[in-house]
Specification:
This protein has 14 helices and 19 strands. By secondary structure, it is of the alpha/beta class. Helix 1 runs parallel beside helix 3 and helix 5 crosses helix 8. The longest helix is centred in the last third of the chain and has 25 residues.
């Protein structure tokens, strides 16, 4: 049975060469019984004729704020209220920037400000544009407000650059629409405890031992969990991006502080996810005063930090899920399998680090999901936001399986 029938999607089409792919999205959704209202920017109309979308959806294309057929004062407000989802595909750097900064200079940007419906962006732009600091900050800001992103994919673009920026294929976007329209808060009532970010272990009052973790992967997971209705507690070390506004956030710095916070909150969690880049070692005796430069070498004794996710795995309840991450530079599967079993995890995400398109600070990651039954699911070079969506899908499935097992026993 199609649970998405009678739903209303406003499809925003902006001025990217990928605009033609939105035709397939409009057609697929309409055939499935979804009401699709197409909205085109003036740039988009230079690439695809409005008549195409009107023929595919059976609905008039909206473009101008003032048109003879509409009430200019309320039309965008009425549609903003009636929509079950705003889908912007393709989403250019321009529309992302306007939405992030509250600019409302056409019908689409005005409606995006007025709607309370979920908003899904499918970015499509030049690789250098997508990876630009300004664009990434705009995306992070929108995610903090609850907007969702799918893609972009990596590959050879129309502009002949090779990297992230290509809009994902229409069928993947349609799957994301089904997920949003049909899942109806599939994690509502669940509490997810998440660690993310780096640890800074002090050497003296001004220096520390740390790592390159940006926190982007963890915050993408937190945002996706919030979008699905979960209560989310984020225990974060130093990070390059701000955590989602709707999460409960606990700021820590050292691995010991992170461990203490996890132990306090783990019993109330249905799912514990260890996405932090936890420091394995700390300085045994941090200096109380700054080390001064000397002609002699400086020796620092290190001691082992707590194994946070290992401790949680050893103490978890039967119905509690514990998920870990394994950031590896080599022997990815072997190291991840060892951690999966040693730490008693239900699932581990093994991701390569140390390359330009995967690992700390990157927008994409080359990852594998390893499960207790030996199954391995590959996700090569995927945007971290998309990987978070895949992870939440498995968490929903694992929670359902755990619940059924508990009832049986």
């Amino acid at each position: 049975m199609n649970t998405t029938s009678a739903k209303h999607v406003v499809l925003g089409v902006t001025g990217s060469i990928a605009a033609y792919k939105a035709c397939e999205i409009a057609s697929t959704l309409t055939k499935a019984g979804v009401k699709v209202t197409p909205v085109m920017t003036h740039s988009a109309k230079q690439l695809v004729g409005p008549a195409t979308f009107e023929g595919l959806t059976g609905n008039r294309v909206i473009s101008d704020m003032v048109e003879s057929e509409q009430n200019a004062n309320i039309d965008h407000i009425a549609l903003a209220k009636s929509a079950d989802l705003f889908l912007v595909a393709p989403a250019t750097a321009n529309i992302v920037g306007k939405a992030a900064n509250g600019i409302a200079d056409d019908w689409l940007t005005t409606a995006l400000l007025a709607t309370q419906a979920p908003i899904l962006f499918a970015p499509a732009m030049n690789t250098n544009m997508y990876t630009h600091t300004a664009v990434q900050k705009n995306i992070d800001l929108l995610m903090q407000r609850g907007c969702q992103f799918i893609g972009p994919a990596a590959g050879l673009l129309a502009c002949k650059t090779d990297g992230p920026g290509r809009m994902v294929e229409p069928e993947e976007i349609v799957d994301a629409v089904w997920s949003i329209l049909g899942r109806s808060d599939d994690l509502k009532g669940k509490h997810i405890l998440l660690t993310t970010g780096a640890n800074h272990e002090p050497i003296d009052p001004v220096r520390y031992i740390g790592n390159r973790s940006s926190g982007k992967m963890g915050f993408a997971i937190a945002q996706e969990a919030l979008a699905r209705g979960a209560e989310v507690t984020v225990i974060t070390g130093p990070a390059d991006v701000a955590p989602p506004a709707k999460a409960k956030v606990i700021q820590v710095e050292t691995a010991q502080e992170m461990s203490n916070a996890v132990m306090v909150h783990m019993d109330e969690a249905d799912v514990v996810i260890g996405a932090a880049a936890v420091a394995d070692y700390r300085v045994a005796q941090p200096a109380t005063q700054k080390h001064k430069r000397s002609t002699q070498s400086l020796s620092i004794e290190l001691c082992e930090n707590p194994d946070i996710i290992g401790t949680v795995g050893a103490q978890k309840r039967p119905e509690q899920l514990v998920i870990g991450f394994a950031a590896e530079t080599n022997d990815l599967i072997a190291h991840a399998e060892e951690k999966l079993n040693k730490k008693n995890l239900d699932l581990i995400v093994a991701n390569k680090v140390g390359t330009s398109n995967s690992g700390f600070g990157a927008e994409t990651t080359d990852a594998r999901f390893l499960f207790r039954d030996g199954t391995i699911e590959e996700h090569p070079v995927l945007p971290k936001r998309s990987l978070a969506d895949h992870l939440m899908n498995h968490i929903v499935a694992l929670l359902s399986k755990t619940a059924k097992t508990s009832v049986t026993h």
